[in-house]
Batch of 3 targets.
Target 1
Amino acid sequence: MHGTGMRALEIQSLTGPDGVAVVDRDEPADDGRSVIIDVVTAGVSFPDLLQSRGLYQVRPEPPFVPGLEMAGVVRHAPADARVAAGDRVCAWTRGALAEVVAARPHEVFAIPAELSFEEGASFILNYQTAVFCMGHRGGLRAGETVLVLGASGGVGTSGIQVAKAFGAAQVIGLVSTEEKGQVARSAGADNIVIISDTWKDDVLEATGGKGVDMVYDPVGGDRFLDGIRSLARFGRLVVVGFAAGTIPEIKVNRLLLRNVSVVGAAWGEAAAHDDTLTERIHEELLEMIAGGHIHPPVGAVLPVERGVEAYRLLDDRQAVGKVLVRFRPDPS
């Protein structure tokens, strides 16, 4: 029998990691329309950190259970869902950092056999974002060159792999340290550029003076302008997010100098207005997995008792790969 209590992370005040606690809460009720999932692992992502300070666009009133993605086993599903009891699944849904989650059927996907529960919980947000931002919004084509900013984190490593899956001829990762460069290389980056006062010149040198066709920018801040300067003629910078914490500005005459574009790309906004989008992207990702391009890099996996540390890793810029919280052992 399942009890009615469960462990969950809870944001109790909008004070960052200090406001996060591990608590006992009631399990979500089964309304007959949701997929009820016993969570094995759940991801902690940059939006979760923003939300813990009230800085994300979705701002629930504390106390609330955070988290946007998880992997686990279906306990119960409506008859018309594409998954059934016992299936290994991953899902993107609010309140994911808990032992039991109720998700809407269109938010739930079977985990491909090639992926573990840890990889499944690292899969949806970052990889759906990368396909949407690079392919659907950025129009990335085979043979083009891509510069990925913040290339060692979960968003960056997924961007590297998806760019390669799209057929990018050269993927350059921008990182802050040599150690992070190794993470980007193992994700598939062809070249590494370490941040310095002249990193833009290093990118130009790596591309034979031409510049890159696309900059994938989940960082913002002061790297944005040099990202624009790194573009080849007719290149585009895809704005994914602002991990640096500051939202950059640009004088738009810079866009005219070499016919470059700045493209806003918000997967969450698009998915909220089109229930079919995530399923269509998932089909693209299954092909990429089958082609051997997608291997989600798993970083720290912390037991639920230490779940608050996941927030601290992100806050201290120590996260390499995807940071996960484990709620129960892998079912054998």
Target 2
Amino acid sequence: MNEHPTTDGEPQPAGPATVSGSSRYGRRALLSVAAAAGAGVAVSLAGGTAPAEAASRDNGGPVLLGEANTATAGTTITNADGGAFAGNTSANGGHSGVHGNDTSTAGGYGVAGSSTHGFGVAGDSTNGTGVQGTTSGPGGIGVAGIDNSGEDLSSGVTGTSTIGFGVSGNCPNGVAIYGESANGYAVYATAPGGTGLLVQGPSVFQGTTKFSNSGFATVKKNDKSVKVKLAGVTVANIVLATLQTLQPGVAVAAAVPDAGSFTITLTGSVPADTNVGWFVIG
């Protein structure tokens, strides 16, 4: 006959297994609890009101759901066949499936993701926001993308959209999207079959502005015209031209576009080589 010690040291006959007061469970349930305890898992028997702990609450003990868990060592969950951890919530009111919070003064990560060939952090939403970054302090950054690969085609932040906006910025009084680069391009836009950059409303350009469809051509001495070859030019383009050297009595008479070129004609021949600036629009 099995005996269990009591608080006063006198052995007592073993009674039926109980969890959470008077709730009774059969032999099969007890074996399940024992197996879970051997694996280091915290379980709660069906119908009970308190979890059955398989180990101490100190470091190395189980993680108990619904309770605060504190440790000084990191916790690692590894799954070779599927996702290591999943967090879900169906509650209303701004709750999170997974919430990470960093309160260190050195600057850590609330949530960190790393991937060798996939996505470090992926966000997906049917009607809401896949990934949201919020900052409330001066100089903070809601979402930051950093590329340290040194490759031309790599990106710190990439936005992709089938119909809508790949990257969207909204700021009522400040700067919606800000880009900064010491030696490269702060913002780069390309669209092989569409429009690289669409601007609606007034635009402000500060500093020197360069256009690949602009330049200058030279009208040779005693000539009055010059033909400029430029890929992509059609008869539908507009060509603006102006003399870069003052020649009394001589001006630009016309700048006529053609397929792959345009011709600048002056009102008279020039006494010396004369540069003419041009700009193709459209």
Target 3
Amino acid sequence: MNIQDEKFAEFEKLSNEEKVKYFQRNGHLFDMIISQQLNRQVIDDLFKITNQVRTIAKSKTGSIFLQGLLRHKRAMLYFTQPSSRTFLSFENACHILGMRTSEIRDSRVSSEIKGESFDDSLRTFSSYTDLIIMRHHEPNRAERAAWLLNSYSDRAVPVINGGSGADQHPTQAILDIYTLLRSFEYQGGLEHKTILMCGDLKRGRTVRSLSYLMKNFEGVKVIYAAPPEFQMRSDVIEFLERHKIPCTIEDKNLLNVLPKADAIYMTRIQDEHDKVSGESGKTDISNFKIGKEDMNKVKPNAIILHPFPRRDEIDVAVDSDPRAMYWHQERNGMWARAGLIAYIFNVHGEIMDY
């Protein structure tokens, strides 16, 4: 273990509250690594900024204005884990703001294949770009990148976590909250709503990150629906308990709780995290899917979300139902990530004043 490994091991012992402070500059968001960084004020600000970005972008004049905001900046998309939506939405979010982008989507085409360390690769990326957006199959890699550049580099560029192992996916949580807030904007907001999360909760980083944001909304209730093998891990349950957020566990059948939900967040089985090939296939998940006939049990004003990719946990026949919001949710990812980047680079004032 080298000196950087030892120092990072010490950093990892910090509480999330202490880490939140580390990822800021003068009280402002610098790196976006964990959902716990997002308080209600930041969430509300990002909501307003994102709405303004998408409104401005509707006209040619507005689009040209947005593209001039960060034309002098460059972004690196370092995605060593397969991705469609997250990669494309980030790439286009950068382009909306005028940023030029570089990419590595396979570590086999980088110098890591020659034995270069992860740390040295990150410092190399920071030499050429002003922002690093990364997705990695190993947990805590985004934390390591932000910690490294803040501690050991004379060029500490912001790092955005686009998905890290099975632990967190904070920008997905941002676009999910944005979609929820838009959906319930004329229904009293997200306060006092019941959020049902279903699927592979144990290894689903999207539901973990979204769960952490629930503390920002008064009266929210959470339901976790999954077989016992895929139920939410204890650290998230304990987090909800500490923040006095009511939480119900349903491990028998999704239909038992479907009528209670204001928002239903479906996820696929995360079998890429199987320790043994085919391990996930041994668990019966047939009672945790939504078909067209099940929509009769869903509240008239409820919404259905899904971070994608989808398998058969939501029948395609549901897509035409107005309560199915997942395709809107997907497009919202581009706008929400553009809003986040604008906020990190402090150009959101110009956007709001446009």
